[in-house]
Amino acid sequence: MSENNNLAAFGGTADMQQLAEDLIGKMRSAGADAADLLLVSGTSVSVSCRLGEVEDVERSEGQDLGLRAFIGNQQAVVSTSDLSAATLDEMVSRVVAMARSAPADPYCGLADAALLAKDVPDLDIYDASTPQMPELIDAARQCEDAARGIEGITNSEGASTGWGHSQLVLATSGGFNQGYRSSSYSISCSVLAGEGVAMERDYEFSSSRHYADLTAADEIGKIAALRTLSRLNPRKVKSAQVPVIYAPRVANSLLGHLSGAINGAAGARGTSFLKNCLGRRRLTR
Question: Using an 8 Å Cβ cutoff, are 198 and 232 in contact?
């Protein structure tokens, strides 16, 4: 295998899939009954401004690889961000050796071949746009200026903009080897209103898969300011039984709690509050 320390040098997911196939084969040759891996490469850029001045400019590029080997009902996992040939060979040997020494787990194993996806649909989650630094800085400043321009706003925690591109490949010894590209773009702003112990803070943000779908920078700033002002002079309410309506920016976090609760590993370990609810409906339509 040729030396390659940075997946950014890869032409795309096809090159990553070839590396994945090679590594799966090496784990099998080293003694694994079955194996799978996750390979991710990514680039991200972000800018933050406060009170009109640039505070942080960051860019990161990296790659991560996770290998899992199965020997009977035993499994082991290793990970690395160094994709040199020598390190990859060492990781293959190590994960198989660890699997031989791991305790038996009756729940471990790969999905049956009949359950594997054959045709992976294009979900339209990749945009090749790469906004340049001056454009990102200008958007962050516009966002914060719009918020600070609303009467009653007394200070700012700043505004930030950024984007990220990533490639992911998942491969198994059962014949599955698929990958995809994804992108994300974001802008956010947080400001303060009031003084002393009566000071309040709130924020607004926008995130999207496609750059053109981001909410306008000045609109984000205005919403952040209005939300902050709406928190001033809060009042207590009497105890009561009432329906609870979650704001959209909070409501989506509920799905994260649900996905964690129905995770197979959590159920197998008995750590989920839904561990005794297999096959039962937990949400109403």
Answer: yes
Residue 243: the pLDDT is: 92
pLDDT recorded at residue 191:
98
- Say if 1 falls within a structural domain: no
Supply angle C-alpha 125, 130, 136, rounded to 5. Answer: 115
Say how many domains are in the chain. Answer: 2
| Whether residue 259 sits in one domain with residue 227 | no
Q: Are residues 197 and 270 part of one domain?
A: no
For residue 8, pLDDT over 60 is answered with: no
Name the residue among 66, 22, 63, 72 with its Cα closest to residue 173: 22
Task: Tell me, yes or no, whether 82 lies in a domain.
Answer: yes
- Report pLDDT digits (tens) over 274-284: 888 888 887 77
Give the ranges where 154-199 is alpha helix by DSSP (H): none
Q: Tell me how far apart the 2 most distant CA atoms of the chain are, in Å.
A: 69
Rounded Cα gap, residues 176 and 29, in angstroms: 18
Contacts of 227 (CB under 8 A, 6+ apart): 202, 203, 204
pLDDT given for residue 263 in this prediction? 84
Q: Provide the residue range defining the domain that includes 230.
A: 7-234
